[in-house]
Amino acid sequence: MTKPLLEIKSLTKHFTSKQGFFSKEKVVRAVDGVNLTVYPGETVSIVGESGCGKSTTGRCILRLIEPTDGEILFEGNDIRKLNEEDLRRTRRDMQLVFQDPFASLNPRKTIGQILEDPLIIHEIGTPQERRRQVEEMIEIVGLSKQHLDRFPHEFSGGQRQRIGIARALILRPKLIIADEPVSALDVSIQAQILNLMQDLQKEFHLTYLFISHDLSVVRHISDRVAVMYLGKVVEVADKRSLYEKPTHPYTQALLSAVPVPNPHVTTQRIILEGDLPSPANPPSGCTFHPRCRHCMEICRTTAPPVRELAPDHFVSCHLEDADTIGSHT
Ligand code: SF4
């Protein structure tokens, strides 16, 4: 059986905030006990509304934000227990692609310098060897050697994201966490970047953890999908199972808003009432209950357990049988 590349167990990130000097400290439960397994070579997406904790989860995995609790096993080693030196070495294998490629590229450095920096930090190669690797990588992402002497502001959004991907890839990582990598781009450019990522995945045997609010994009790129709501994963399944038979009422509502490119198929939009509650004051029981059209008495008081309703299809909901909920058509 294939061993997971990444296993997240009960990952928790709580922030504390205080409004005024005399006010009580509030705990914001940004990530609240997330479990997720990612196998080598697959693309697992995390989806959910803005503020659901998906980006914080990604940053906790890389320890760019220190988690409050939980385990993050990368190739079986808990990266929360690594010392500075071992963490630095492990980070070579885990890279991040940012949403806003412009903000993440140093405007005062040339593209050549930006791509060489990770190699210098990890003490890889001589200057000549590094230059060769940088030239090779810029061509792999569809740009040319001539671009290496230019600055980030001289590129379009799509080109800048290609550079962001090249910078993540130059260390030849095993895992790439891509945080909304195409949401700042035009739709036509989005497709190009997604196709590039898929090509690179095959060529370099990459594993992706793809974070997005856009279910159309997620459908294009994922093998499995985890749906997050208010810091928790409420449903995880392979793409086909999730899109064809979404089981959690929140997943059903999200999917009902995705346009279907077929004039003969009509979809019934499920309108979610109210806004995402504050993670500083989450509802009791099932945190989705104030917005759920299937809410029962038990939902107001008792958090639902995670159950496997079909092979590898996990749901956190009190409704016993998926068929009683009805599926998105
Ligand atoms: Fe809705 Fe209850 Fe399921 Fe929560 S547990 S999603 S409130 S039916």
Keywords for this entry:
globular, 329 residues, alpha/beta, 8-stranded mixed sheet, disordered C terminus, Rossmann fold, binds iron/sulfur cluster
What's a quick, concise take on this entry?
Keywords: ATP-binding, Nucleotide-binding, Transport. The chain is 32% helix and 23% strand. It has twelve helices and twelve strands.
CATH architecture: 3-Layer(aba) Sandwich
CATH class: Alpha Beta
> In percent terms, what proportion of residues is strand?
15-25%
Can you tell me the overall shape?
A: globular
Query: In what order do the strands lie side by side in the largest sheet?
Result: 6-7-8-3-9-10-12-11
- What is the CA-CA span between the terminal residues? 35 Å
* Beta strands, count: 12
The CATH superfamily title: P-loop containing nucleotide triphosphate hydrolases
pLDDT < 50 stretches: 324-329
Mean pLDDT: 91
Number of helices: 12
Provide structural commentary.
- 32% of the residues lie in helices and 23% in strands.
- It has 329 residues and is an alpha/beta fold.
- It has one domain: 3-Layer(aba) Sandwich (Rossmann fold), CATH 3.40.50.300.
- The strands form two sheets. It has an eight-stranded mixed β-sheet, with helices on both faces.
- A hairpin with a 2-residue loop joins strand 9 and strand 10.
- Helix 6 packs parallel to helix 7.
- The longest helix has 18 residues.
- It is globular and about 70 Å long.
- The C terminus is likely disordered.
- The site of iron/sulfur cluster has 14 residues, from loops.
